[in-house]
Task: inverse folding
């Protein structure tokens, strides 16, 4: 996982990393985007929609094989990190899905699929 002192984290205008761990095999998967300057504002819109303060303490997940998510954003303005369980809200879903797909959604305000 990138650290603030890594070259990639400090040289990128914006770096968003999503890490998922747990599940049946306990494996960790990592996705990242470093959007070009032309897309930076749209990505920051997705980031700002997320309730960062509420995500400081993930809700306890019940059941075996649950996933644990970590979202880290390094931007020129600030860096932030959130730890989430499987039951995250729509703004988180939009950001995580976009990072996993490597592209912005067609509409940043879309609702997650049921």
Result:
């Amino acid at each position: 996982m990138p650290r603030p002192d890594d070259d990639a984290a400090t040289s990128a205008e914006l770096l968003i990393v999503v890490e998922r761990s747990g599940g049946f095999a306990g494996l960790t998967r990592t996705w990242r985007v470093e959007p070009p300057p032309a897309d930076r504002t749209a990505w920051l819109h997705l980031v700002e929609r997320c309730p960062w303060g509420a995500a400081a303490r993930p809700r306890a997940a019940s059941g075996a094989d649950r996933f644990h998510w970590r979202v880290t954003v390094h931007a020129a303005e600030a860096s932030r990190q959130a730890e989430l369980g499987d039951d995250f809200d729509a703004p988180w879903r939009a950001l995580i899905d976009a990072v996993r797909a490597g592209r912005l959604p067609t509409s940043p305000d879309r609702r997650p699929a049921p």
In short: The longest helix spans residues 90-101.
